[in-house]
Amino acid sequence: MRIQEFYRSHGVMTDPGAFSQMYSELPPNISDLVKAVQGSLIHVFWAERYGIKLSDQQKATLQIRRIDRKLEILANKSNASLSDPRPLDQRQVGNCRDFSTLLCSMLRQKGVPARARCGFSTYLLPGHYEDHWVCEYWSNEKMRWIMVDPQLDDFQKQAMSIVFDPLDVPRDQFVTGGQAWDTCRSGKADPKDFGILNMSGLGFIWGNVIRDILALSKTEILPWDSGWGYLAYHLEAPLPTETLNLFDEIATLTLDPEKNFDEIQRRCTRDPLLRIPNELLR
Fold first, then answer.
1. pLDDT of residue 13
2. Helices 202-216 and 177-185 sit at what angle, rounded to 10 degrees?
3. 71 with 14: CB under 8 angstroms?
4. What does the longest C-alpha to C-alpha distance in the chain come to?
């Protein structure tokens, strides 16, 4: 229960802060919470398929990390309840990280243990491990962590022929950063099959390892945050064996977040290369 208690409270990114009242009318069940997320956000890559042309100003809000600032934008657009789907042009522009982090925030606000996970989906692009984020929450009824993909609304499910329930994503449909690293390092998969757009490879996978371990410590950085700490390494060039061994060790920690909970929190607190620059927390 100590682990569940940790994920029941907010981190800096998921705390609604002064806009916590916007959560007061949210429904209690996961299905309706996911609909509230989907009714508040519009995915930057899907907007045109919904018939929405995004301005550069709207796209720029993707740089916002913290949920309280995203809620502020939503509040300024409309005082409607988050339980009521907003018109597409009044939704906050986001990506998979934003959908997952907003659901995580709502769940934590309701006292439900939740955490975002960073890795790769097998279902967004056939034959490819696509860069992606999901959310996990603890179910007392089923006594396990349940993986949810809050981005997949009815339109996307139909467009991508999704056959599983996004409210309980099968574990073989999503590969965490650490699992991808372990699979590729052991030669069981090609790192070039993991990524997004024209970006792929072991270096890209390593970035998701770090984003995942930070999310497990309740700090959900942006998918493109880089250039500091472990995210400053360039894996295109050969790295010393001891460095790769260290990376293997960090990735392995994320494979079993419960067993390695204390070590994950210790590393994220004390390892200077996992210390997030202050400007990324604002």
1. 98
2. 140
3. no
4. 55
